[in-house]
Amino acid sequence: MKKVLQTLTLAIVTLASSAVVLAEVDESPIDIEVVRAFPNLRIRRPVVLTNAGDQSNRLFIVTQQGVIHVIPNHQEVKETQTFLDIEDQVVYDDRKNEEGLLGLTFHPNYEENGYFYVYYTTKDAPQTSVVSRFSVSKNNPNRADPDSEFELMRVSQPFWNHNGGTVEFGPDGYLYIVLGDGGKANDTLMNGQNVQTLLGSILRVDVDGTSKNRRYRIPADNPFANAGGLARPEIWAYGLRNVWRLAFDRETGLLWAGDVGQDIWEEINIIQPGGNYGWNLREGKHKFGPAGSEARSDLIDPIWEYHHDIGKSITGGEVYRGKQVPSLTGYYLYADYVSGKFWALKYNPRTEQVEENRSLTSNSVKPVMTFGVDEAGEVYCSDAFGMIYRFQTTR
Questions:
Q1: Domain range for residue 350?
Q2: Is the pTM of this model over 0.70?
Q3: What percent of the chain lies above the pLDDT cut of 90?
Q4: Which residue from 48, 74, 81, 98 has the fewest beta carbons nearer than 10 Å?
Q5: Whole-number pLDDT of residue 363
Q6: What is the number of structural domains in the chain?
Q7: How far is CA 361 from CA 74, 193, 355, 365, in A?
Q8: Is the pLDDT of residue 206 over 70?
C-alpha cells in the first residue's frame, strides 16, 4: 500500500508540474497582422520564398509547377523576371499536389561561384525526387543557365505524397535536404524508423566536392558517417513524417522543423544530430497506432504540438530577425495550411521550454503555402492563390 501511495503521489506531482509548465506558456493574442507585401503581384502556387544572400536585396519565388521568379524587393513591383524555367522537367498535378519544384537554396558563396540548388519531382522517372545544382548566367544576374544542371542525387518515392522538399544551407556550410516518409498513410513501409533508407529523414551533405560513389561528400561528423552500411551516412535526423518547412535561426543556429501530422497532432521540432523524432511510433507527444510507443528516452518529442481541433496541417515557418517589427524578434512564425491561423512562438533554448505561443490578430490567409526570409531577416509567407504577405504591427 505504501508503494502504491508513493507512486500515486509521484504521478500527482508530475501532473501538477506539467500543469504549471503549461500555465506558464503565454497564449494571448499578439498585435501583429498579415498584409500583402507586393499588392501588384500574383504568382502560381508559390512554394518557396528566399534570397540569394548576395547583397542584391532580391527575392526569389518558386512556383510548384517549375518556374523560379526573381523580383526587386519593393512593394510597388508589378512584374517578375524568370530566373529559371524547368517546367518541362517537373511533375505537377493538382490532384497530386505534393509533387513539383519544392525547394530552392543558394550556395553560401553564391556571389563567387553562382551555384544554387533545387529539389523537384522529375518527369524522366516515375515518382522520383531529384536534387540538382544549377549556375547563374555569366551575362545576366537575373537569369540562370538552364543547361548547367548537375544532378547530386535522386530518390525513388513509393507514393506521390510526403516528399518534403526543403533544401537549405546551414551555418556550417553543408546542405540539408528534407525527405518525407514516402507517402500514403501510417508509414506502412516503416521508412521513418529505418535508417537504411533516406526517406523520413533530414540529410546533411557537403556539396563542395565529390566522393568515389557520390556527387557530394559525407561530412565526417554526420551521426552515421561510420555506420559501416548499417545506416545511410547522409542522415542527420530521422523519424519524421513530412517536414514542411525546415529553417535555421540565423542568430542562434537552431534548426526548426514543422512536421505535418496525420490523425490528431501537428508538431514543431528542434532538430538535433542523430535525433529520432518518433514517427511512426509516435505522433506529436503521443503513442501512434496499436504498434506505437509510449514516451522513450531515445525518441525526441516535439517542443510544441497542436490538436486537429485547431488546425490540420502545419506550415513550418521562420524565426523573425528583421527590423521592421521589433516586437517579433526571436519569435518563430508559423501557420496552419487548413485553418489559416498564424502563431508567434517563443522558445528558450537554455531551459528547452516554450514560453509563448501567441496567435496573431490577423488570421485571414488560407491556405498558407510557405514562409521565407529576405536578406534583412524580414519574414514573408504565401497562399495557394499566388499572393505574398508580410508581417506588421496591427494598426
A1: 29-393
A2: yes
A3: 92
A4: 74
A5: 63
A6: 1
A7: 25, 39, 19, 12
A8: yes
